[in-house]
Write a structure and sequence with these properties.
The protein is of the alpha+beta class and 155 residues long. The protein has one domain: Gcn5-related N-acetyltransferase (GNAT) (Aminopeptidase), CATH 3.40.630.30. The protein is built from six helices and eight strands. Strands 1-2-3-5 form a four-stranded antiparallel β-sheet, with helices on both faces. It has a four-stranded mixed β-sheet with strand order 4-6-8-7. It holds the Pfam family Acetyltransf_10.
Length: 155
């Protein structure tokens, strides 16, 4: 599947919102147990206005698009090298979209002179991040009645 990586645009906020919501509901069952009460809380801030503000914020946000300009993935990085969001459409899972997004963020961090990237991972994504060289720090974060393990990677 040919695709391109681009800087996210606030004009894409509605499509990105739909992607985030589908990814959380359909791909993160290991984390929310397919319990609507748990994933509704996770979805609460996944709105087009919030996505637009994230894109327009001080960090870097990227999308991966297919040849028809359909957004297949979305990721964000902060100016200090933290990755708070990285999601793909369910039908784009395991196609290289996630790796492309991570490469774009890590390249941006290197260009900013950072020597480390960090993130908090869902259970669903832990194996993926480990495959990219991220290592557990031993720290955890609890949000929305879920525990997320923290990971770091030297750049």
């Amino acid at each position: 599947m040919p695709y391109t990586v681009e800087r996210a645009s606030s004009a894409d906020s509605h499509e990105i919102t739909l992607l985030l919501r589908a990814s959380i509901i359909e791909l993160c069952g290991l984390d929310h147990g397919d319990n609507p009460d748990r994933y509704k809380a996770w979805l609460k801030n996944k709105t087009a206005p919030n996505v637009e503000s994230w894109i327009d914020g001080p960090g870097a946000a990227f999308v991966v698009q297919d040849q028809d300009k359909r957004i297949l993935g979305f990721a964000m990085g902060t100016p200090k090298g933290h990755i708070p969001l990285m999601y793909v459409l369910p039908d784009a899972r395991l196609t290289g979209v996630s790796k492309t997004l991570m490469r774009a963020l890590e390249d941006t961090f290197r260009d900013r002179g950072l020597d480390e990237s960090c993130l908090s991972s869902t259970l669903t994504a832990e194996r993926f991040y480990k495959s990219l060289g991220y290592a557990e720090t031993g720290e955890t974060k609890t949000q929305l009645d879920m525990t997320f393990r923290c990971f770091k990677k030297g750049l």
